[in-house]
Amino acid sequence: MQAATPAPDHPPRDSATIVLLRDAAQGMEVLLLRRNARASNMGGLYVFPGGKLDPQDHWAEGNPGLDRPGAALASALGEAETPPERAAALYVAALREALEECGLLLAEPLAHGAGLDAGAVRARLRGGEGFAALVQAMALRLQTRALLPWSRWITPLAPSMASRRFDTRFFVARAPADQVARHDDEETVDTLWARPRSALEQYRDGAIELAPPQIMTLAHLARHASVAEVLDAAARQRPPTILPQAYDDAGTRVICYPGDTHHAVRTRAMPGPTRLLMRGQRFFPEDGFDALWD
Question: What is the CATH number of the domain that holds 177?
């Protein structure tokens, strides 16, 4: 087994993803959005809402639109090397991307008894108004407390699918019960609520396409029966940092995760298989698909 050829060593860009969950009659469901096939990165794949940090995500300390100060957000994120300003920006980015890509806004009115029209905020955001200015103009406060850090994924030095490298923080959150998620018909073109195991089975059967971080995250979520269980697990853990390592084995691309015998980090970071094999342009566990939840 030989290490895959590394890509140019550009520092990964900070980004944030929000894994939105809801309890349904058949069990807990997770929100997935299909990216536009014309997208330069992950085109056509089903992903969680998210994206890279933008300059507009850096809000001044003390902004009334945030429900916690930067120091508290940095502490909750659990990354000693990440300063409060950037930690706060990651939370803002996750919440902004959720609004942009699927229309869900985790916020509350500052005025007691006032209503929240997520659709109106989204329309104004799509019209070109800045997120921070909108939150202030509409007297809202973002609910960062609703987001719990789940994991941190760093694109491998030798990417198998992505054209760029990202340092992505995955947050879990309960989707607002009084709002309806819908793709934006630009970056995202389909909305799918599915039980984590069902989404993986759809991937297995070729009905949808997923990238390895989504595959492994869904496999992790499939071990929980309810949103409350996921949030409780998130509150009790330190989010693992996952830097996959890629190898070529007799012409087959292999993606290894912490805990695998071929990974530099020998301590397991998450449940499920420690490696995925690339067959064509799709990834499967070495020991069969059921290894995702065994």
Answer: 3.90.79.10
For the stretch 47-64, pLDDT in tens is 999 999 999 999 998 899
Query: Contact at 8 Å (CB) between 170 and 189?
Result: no
Task: Please give the DSSP secondary-structure letter assigned to residue 224.
Answer: -
CA distance 158 to 156: 5
Query: How many Å apart are CA 283 and CA 286, to the nearest integer?
Result: 9
Q: What is the total count of domains within the chain?
A: 1
- Determine if the pTM surpasses 0.90: yes
Task: Please compute the mean of the pLDDT values over residues 213-229 and round it to a whole number.
Answer: 97
Helix (H, G, I), strand (E, B) or coil at 2: strand
Instruction: Give the three-state DSSP class for 261.
Output: coil
DSSP 3-state assignment of 225?
coil
Residues 266-291 as b/e (b if ≥16 CB within 10 A, e otherwise) read eeebbebbbbbbbeeeebbbeeeeeb
- Tell me if 187 is assigned to some domain: yes
Residue 238, number of CB atoms within 10 A of its CB:
8
Q: How far apart are CA 289 and CA 278, in angstroms?
A: 13
CA-nearest of 65, 55, 48 to 144 is 65
Which residue segment(s) compose the domain that 39 sits in?
14-237
Please check whether residue 286 lies inside any domain of the structure: no
Determine, yes or no, domain membership for 85: yes
The answer as to whether 258 is a domain residue is no
**CA proximity to 197, closest of 20, 19, 27, 21:** 27
Over residues 258-275, the pLDDT tens digits come to 999 999 999 999 999 999
Q: Is 165:159 a contact under the CB 8 Å cutoff?
A: yes
Residues 6 or more apart whose Cβ sits within 8 Å of residue 292: 200, 215, 218, 219, 222, 272, 273, 285
Query: How far apart, in Å, are the Cα atoms of 268 and each of 12, 243, 261, 273?
Result: 23, 12, 10, 10
